[in-house]
């Protein structure tokens, strides 16, 4: 396993991280636990979850699975998206964040979070309130580092400026949708993170499985896949993404690896990427993805991948999660 600094912090994370939004949903407790333990055996030390994944079950499963090995893990969770119907059950107000942090700590069976991330920008709460709350959490020892997710570039830069002006702990990472099928972060977010020393954590690195090649035709719904369990996932299907998937599959065959490994390896070559989080519903998927760490891409392969995915630098992001205005 390879390890990189998270942004310009001193924290080192595995270049491949484990995403857990399927735990407690598409992967039951037993399967999820096996995946976690196998990930640790592979040297993965970055585990990403959130307070809303599988209705909090993801955090509960992780908390039990990490018993006795918690100290070896960079554990990260998030808060800020909608948790309930109440007026204070969403966003990044002091009220909501403190409540959610305490609840996450209990479910994860730990007394600290290594990286606490704001799941999305909150247009209804002053950034000063959010950032002072996060700073208090770091100073209390409940949180070690803080990160953002689903921020626009201007929102992230504003937050950094406020933190520096007020002498607060600042964001060290940015979690954003980023893949060969969504290169929109390269327009503004990547240059910003490069300038400010922010580590990028891509999610949906395989475009929800489209880049694996398993959705070769639009009607295919492999049992247990996102398309099989989530009818709304078909909104991501279009002819341009299927065409890209086919081209990636051809390049992967020439490189002697799977389309998944090739797509993940490409992301690992991009500026500011600290760790690429990828989910799994069974150990075999994790085994395939771990091979990406050893894929050595030649310049001509990188050039070709850049060429076939260049149209995806523009247009709408593949996915973005925002609170209603």
From TrEMBL:
TM region positions: none
Record domain NADP-dependent oxidoreductase: where: 16-309
CDD domains, per database record: AKR_PsAKR
Coiled coil: none
Gene3D superfamilies, alphabetized: NADP-dependent oxidoreductase domain
Superkingdom to which the source organism belongs: Bacteria
Keywords: Oxidoreductase
Alphabetical list of InterPro entries matching this protein: AKR, AKR_Detox_Biosynth, NAD(P)_OxRdtase_dom_sf, NADP_OxRdtase_dom
PANTHER family cross-referenced by the UniProt entry: NAD(P)-LINKED OXIDOREDUCTASE SUPERFAMILY PROTEIN, NADH-SPECIFIC METHYLGLYOXAL REDUCTASE-RELATED
Protein name: Aldo/keto reductase
Organism expressing this protein natively: Paenibacillus alvei
């Amino acid at each position: 396993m390879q390890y990189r600094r998270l942004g310009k912090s001193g924290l080192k994370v595995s270049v491949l991280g484990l995403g857990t939004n399927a735990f407690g949903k598409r992967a039951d407790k037993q399967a999820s636990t096996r995946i976690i333990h196998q990930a640790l055996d592979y040297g993965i030390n970055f585990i990403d979850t959130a307070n809303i994944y599988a209705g909090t079950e993801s955090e509960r499963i992780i908390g039990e699975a990490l018993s006795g090995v918690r100290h070896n893990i960079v554990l990260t969770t998030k808060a800020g998206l909608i948790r309930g119907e109440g007026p204070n059950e969403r966003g990044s107000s002091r009220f909501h964040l403190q409540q959610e942090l305490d609840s996450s700590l209990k479910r994860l069976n730990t007394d600290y979070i290594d990286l606490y991330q704001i799941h999305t920008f909150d247009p209804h709460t002053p950034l000063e309130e959010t950032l002072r709350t996060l700073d208090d959490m770091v100073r209390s020892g409940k949180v070690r580092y803080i990160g953002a997710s689903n921020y626009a570039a201007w929102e992230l830069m504003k937050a950094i400026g406020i933190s520096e002006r007020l002498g607060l702990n600042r964001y060290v990472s940015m979690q954003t949708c980023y893949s060969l099928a969504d290169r929109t972060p390269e327009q503004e977010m990547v240059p910003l993170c490069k300038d400010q020393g922010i580590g990028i954590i891509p999610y949906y690195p395989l475009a929800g499985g489209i880049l694996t090649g398993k959705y070769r035709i639009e009607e295919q719904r492999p049992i247990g896949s996102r398309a099989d369990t989530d009818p709304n996932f078909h909104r991501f299907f279009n002819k341009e993404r299927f065409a890209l998937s086919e081209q990636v599959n051809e390049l992967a065959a020439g490189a002697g690896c799977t389309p998944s490994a090739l797509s993940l390896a490409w992301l690992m070559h991009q500026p500011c990427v600290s760790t690429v989080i990828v989910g799994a519903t069974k150990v075999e998927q994790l085994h395939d993805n771990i091979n990406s760490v050893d894929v050595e891409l030649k310049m001509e392969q990188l050039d070709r991948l850049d060429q076939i995915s260049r149209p995806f630098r523009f247009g709408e992001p593949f996915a973005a999660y925002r609170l209603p205005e």
